[in-house]
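>> received
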Amino acid sequence: NYSGRTGVWWHPDTAVSASIGPMAGPPRDDTPAIPLTAVLGLFGVTSELDRVDVLAGGWSHQVWRVQAGTSAFAIKQLRRARGDWWMDQLRAACKFEWAAWSAGTVAMAEPVEVEGGRGLLGELTKWSEDYVYRCHRWVSAAPCDDDPPSISRSRQVGAMVAALSALRFRSPGTTADHL
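>> returned
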């Protein structure tokens, strides 16, 4: 199937190519390592996939916008090449993100938990290789292309930083500033 609106060839379980966004990361294969239906299943989403769009622009990880029934999600496949320390930091960051979402005071995309309340990182194995995924409900928003950012955008960012700071979140073993 072809979506002429976004220039993306797609199939319910794979996405072949795209060109969305101003940044370009290193060359990579945009086909999911594991079918996206299985990835969504990790997060309790069982609706049939209606559309998959590759989101270009990131340097390290693959990201897809997935339409499943009446809901849309951002699925990120994370690279694990950095070692165990990086996964530890990622788990700490997920706890911080969940605290921010749970507080209800931070404007952000809703993180989707792994089914059964097992955190925000979903893991699947294919041919003895582990793959790590994140899932968020899709939020349509405009990028900040202003240089410098507008006063209004700067106020929004300041309000988000204040809301995050007000959480007073602390997690042992995280960065020196506990973020």
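>> Residues 84-103 form the longest helix (20 residues).
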